[in-house]
Write a structure and sequence with these properties.
single chain, 272 residues, alpha/beta, binds nicotinamide-adenine-dinucleotide
């Protein structure tokens, strides 16, 4: 049976109606956390996500609606989660900033609106959730911020100016927060840590347009092979569940001294 070491904890996973975020929400639930789901989708898609997090073992789960491009909606969402979690302020113990979008075209052709949206969702939303959630974590002596960055927070690729800028940004933001909260809590309480996970290619809807662009008249498998062959030496895609396992591990008490780091899950991409 899965050890429910997150029993009594509240987690927020942004962008958890799909892909990596949904897998993380499920895994946190399986380890006993009550989970606040956030993300876009039709009412049916959102209901499917919520039901699957409940089925994974969450004692309580609810979808909190917020378009993360809007700081006022983020503030309102954090207050709603605070009330739901039963504490005075936003009582979030585990904050996973995962929501993200991508748009791959050369810099000079990047629509200005795409730049603004990518920076708002992939970077600024994490600033807002962290500034609102972290003081409460420090008061309680336990908190985990897991920011889903990317290999593109560590190295660049062409045609991804706003994405790479946002991911380098979240790696830097995480280091600042790690330093500011390093002394919060204790070894026994678990402390407050902030880390990034930096995946290479992961099988989710986000990368489907890039797979299709690489087919060159061939099959989807040809597209996948072409993407992996260029950058990811293992020649294996990660599954969302592989990323989730590391996120959950970072929430353990024993991980109290792992802070300000970036864990690459990239099949050797950034070792090259
Ligand atoms: P996905 O498209 O499957 O999921 C993205 C999630 O973000 C969805 O739940 C979506 O509703 C949500 N979202 C998008 N815009 C939003 C908005 N304005 N407000 C609220 N929620 C919004 O993508 P994924 O691959 O699971 O990506 C998750 C994270 O992982 C992203 O930050 C992405 O950059 C990162 N990542 C993915 C890969 C990969 O290969 N898939 C690699 C490295 C990093």
């Amino acid at each position: 049976m899965t050890e429910r070491f997150l029993h009594g904890r509240t987690a927020l996973v942004t962008g958890s109606t799909s892909g990596i975020g949904l897998a993380i929400a499920r895994d946190l639930a399986a380890h006993g956390a009550r989970v606040a789901v956030n993300g876009l989708g039709t009412p049916e898609q959102i209901e499917v996500a919520v039901q699957s997090v409940r089925a994974a073992g969450a004692p309580d789960v609810r979808h909190f609606d917020a378009d993360l491009r809007d700081p006022e909606r983020i503030e309102a969402m954090m207050a709603e989660i605070g009330a739901w979690s039963g504490s005075a302020g936003p009582g979030i113990d585990v904050l996973v900033n995962n929501a993200g979008i991508q748009h791959a075209v050369p810099l000079a052709q990047m629509p200005v609106q795409k730049w603004n949206d990518i920076l708002a969702i992939n970077l600024s939303s994490a600033f807002h959730t962290m500034r609102l959630a972290m003081p409460g974590m420090a008061e309680r002596g336990y908190g985990r911020v897991v920011n889903i960055a990317s290999v593109h927070g560590l190295v660049a690729s062409k045609d991804k100016a706003p994405y790479v800028a946002s991911k380098f940004g979240i790696v830097g933001l995480s280091k600042v927060a790690a330093l500011e909260y390093a002394t919060a809590g204790s070894r026994d309480s678990g402390g407050v840590t902030v880390n990034c996970i930096c995946p290479g290619w992961v099988e989710t809807p986000l990368i489907e347009p890039q797979i299709q662009a690489r087919r060159n008249g061939g099959s989807r498998e040809d597209g996948v092979r072409s993407l992996l062959g260029e950058k990811q030496p293992s020649l294996r895609m990660s599954l969302p569940e592989d990323i989730a396992a590391t996120a959950v591990w970072l929430c353990r008490r024993e991980a109290h001294n792992i802070t300000g780091t970036s864990v690459a899950i990239d099949g050797g991409w950034t070792a090259q």
